[in-house]
């Protein structure tokens, strides 16, 4: 097939999915998107109905080399990247970064560690607000936390960082669900940030689990640095009466001045009644810290290349509306967060002491 080069072959955006790039090229040139899609794709070799992009055809219509295209479009790389390092669903990303790419919305497949566009101070993960990105101008500590997140990544690699960050977000959600009296200043910070991200007079329209995730992100990253560290894992694995150093460090990171006293009370409680014992950090220290990091349970299927835009499932929309109506940042606000699909990998870990009080998983 002889393909002519397009007159205005704009470059792809970083981490853009091929379908998004092809749709932008078509819009820019006034072409039918499906026709251009058929032009640069072919039926998969197995004989199925799916179509896969032929890199050489995309190179021919853009005048760009396959190598240059694959640098921006992960789906075109040979060999294929380790898809476990990426989120399983494509998402819009930062709207300001995308604005310099003409031709309509840019959809990207992002690595797990991208929660904030630090350049434009926008929250971009998890992207369950259906295209919303949230300004962090009033919350610089969340932008700063993304930089600390990248330092954990550089030091420990993506697999340990992925598990540590999701585990820490889940634990912060569990702590946020407890009454104020059982938490320290971090709990106050979560409520304060939630009121900025989801103003009380706009709770129904402004509510999203993504914003709850942003509210706990700074403390989650502080805990994740501890969870990822071999030194602190070793300290955590000591017998509970010999774990002073670990407990003190957790208390410092969560600003829980009374944590040591609470830990003592928890342990007394545990010895008397093990079933009701429920401090998530103590559980992490005693059980999870001894386990290897978990791999994502959902992995991007690059063969499912499609022009269809990712949308929120109806069940997810209903779940969000239910939480939005009942939302009160100072009353069990973390429950919507811990039940969210973004945390599914760590949620499903064998938390046997906690199963009794965890709500069912909702997307
Ligand atoms: Zn940006």
Would you kindly provide a written description of the structure presented here, covering whatever features stand out?
The chain folds into 2 domains: 18-99, no CATH class; 116-357, no CATH class. The protein has 17 helices and 5 strands. Helix content is 47%, strand content 3%. The strands form 2 sheets. The chain has a 3-stranded antiparallel beta sheet with strand order 3-4-5. By secondary structure, it is mainly α. It is elongated and about 75 Å long. Zinc ion (ZN) binds at residues 94, 96-97, 117, 119-120, 122.
Helices and strands in order:
Layout: H1 18-28, H2 33-40, E1 41-43, E2 51-53, H3 55-62, H4 66-72, H5 95-99, E3 116-117, E4 122-123, E5 134-135, H6 140-156, H7 158-176, H8 185-197, H9 203-206, H10 209-228, H11 230-236, H12 244-253, H13 259-272, H14 280-286, H15 314-326, H16 334-338, H17 344-347
Bound molecules: zinc ion (ZN).
Zinc ion binds at residues 94, 96-97, 117, 119-120, 122.
